[in-house]
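Whether sequence alone determines local backbone shape is best considered at the level of individual chains. The sequence in question and its structure tokens are set out directly beneath this paragraph.

===
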Amino acid sequence: MLQGSSILGHDRPPVIRISFPACVLSTVCLPLLGLITCVLISSVFHFEDSTGTHCQVPNYLPSISASISLSPECHIWRFCIGLHSAPRFLVAFTYFKFYKARFSSKFPENPLSCLNLAFSVFENLGLLLLTYVSSSETYFVHKEGFALFIISSVIYMLITCRLWKSIKKYSLSPEIAKSHHWKVRILLFEIAFLAFAGFFYWKHNVYCQSGSYTLFALFEYLVVFANMAFHLTAAWDFKSQEVMVISSSEDKNF
């Protein structure tokens, strides 16, 4: 049982104290619930606006960009992403410290841990960019933010799987083996979903076939869900850790 933390020689009880898995779960649930809410509102109340494209063929699902660019959907999405971004940076730096402790003098794992942190930060920044600049406001900036998010996400997942392969090699823990197994599996799903989404997006733009945009939107959802599932594995990796906020103020005797 943790009794507090020593700061400048004084033991201070934490102001806020929650388990790391609970922190990770709440962080992932914010964009998940936000996305589901935005898609449902767009489908029910803004169906024509959120599913209409230049092809003018029937579509049955809004894309993510379309569903988060309308009102009140955009405000819900921005609230959820803004609230979840700080814990995302916390998790990124927690992984960085974890890798540095294990791979302080190993190559290529030590430089890969730095790249892993960089692409995790880029992924979060890309998500913030595409969130706060909607496709209906400045399409080019929104598109670049989406590209930054997707590319950084895939590279981050690839590097993470490589690092956990090394961790598994020198560990007999079944938890580490399970974490590596699911990370690799989710990465493969992510790449497959991205390929299908890209194919149906191309098919929609070239041939304007009815239903192609709907399938693109469906696989786009799956790409995002796979991304969330990958980040959720942090709950296994740090299941015994806690997140604490400790007051820095000192009691003074007068």
User: Anything to note?
Assistant: The two ends are 34 Å apart (CA to CA). The chain has one domain: 15-49+59-239. Residues 27 and 87 are 6 Å apart (CA to CA). Residues 174-207 form the longest helix (34 residues).
